Amino acid sequence: MNITVRQLELFISLMRNPHIGKVAEEHYLTQSAVSMSIKALEDAVGEQLFDRISNRLVPNESGRLLLNRVRPALEQLQEVETIFRQDRMAGVLTVAASSTIADYIMPQVLFDFRTRYPEVQVEMLSRNSEEVIAGIESGSVALGFIEGDYECRVADFRELCTEELVVVSSDKHFASEREYTIEELLGLKWVLREPGSGTRQTMWEHLGPAKKRLNVFLELEHIESIKMVLKNPDTVSCMSPFCFQRELANGELFPVQVQGVRFTRRFYAVTHRQKYKSALLLAFGNHVRQHLETTWPWILRNTH
């Protein structure tokens, strides 16, 4: 068997993005060179790794099995290049984060990390928390960031910090008039994230039996869509303070004080227990934590 590192690199790229043309551009090769390399790999392992359907490559069961076996080994091999040069960092890291983290925290993190380590490529996926956990379980995601507590037997959870969700309204008079009981708010038009999101789960955990009487008027997948709908009368939502800082400063959204209910939740970094923890993965995880601690201390209660 004669398998090369280049063949494995191209194979992993195709499993991630099964388009020969795009993979060829990524690796500065011709399409025929990529095709020949994958065919040689299939000949070497004695199995077809992709199904050819309507001129498309579709990863099959053998391909997924090989991916789970070779990706950790290739990551370790790539790290050899930097083991004696600790001031350098290189490689590709697939990261998935739940929507609040992906949209409001990660952009600056990615910019700062790429500025510091220009040879690093971070592939950023925005998912809800359940989908992030699914990616960790399947091995398609190297490092995940989620909001709220989830159970997963194959995952390690590293607590990053704690935040408190806020009920918000575009009605300044209503929001500032007084403190409300949750019972007084149940009948308003609630505009919420979809089931499976960390924000929705946190609300449900803290509302208890009252959630059955909550008037869920709309369910939307994106916080920006929710904020647009909140311009309508009698609408409220519950979201992370990360999400409405601009609107708060501009006088467009206002926090509603709620008696006796605190929608607290934890942020976690998540990895598969069997995954090799490369220097790149550890460095990125630490960078995210440092960013939270130094940039948002007035929002977060950090845990150590």
Automatic annotation (TrEMBL):
Provide any one GO MF term from the record: DNA-binding transcription factor activity
Classification via InterPro entries = LysR_HTH_N (IPR000847), LysR_subst-bd (IPR005119), WH-like_DNA-bd_sf (IPR036388), WH_DNA-bd_sf (IPR036390)
Q: Please identify the protein, giving its name as recorded.
A: LysR family transcriptional regulator
What's a Pfam family this protein contains? LysR_substrate
Which Gene3D superfamilies does this UniProt record tie to the protein?
A: 3.40.190.290, Winged helix-like DNA-binding domain superfamily/Winged helix DNA-binding domain (1.10.10.10)
Highest taxon of the source? Bacteria
Coiled-coil features, chain-numbered ranges: none
UniProt entry keywords in alphabetical sequence: DNA-binding, Transcription, Transcription regulation
Q: Which family does it belong to?
A: Belongs to the LysR transcriptional regulatory family.
**Any transmembrane segments, and where?**
none
Q: Could you tell me which residue ranges the HTH lysR-type domain spans?
A: 3-60
The answer to whether keyword Transcription applies is yes
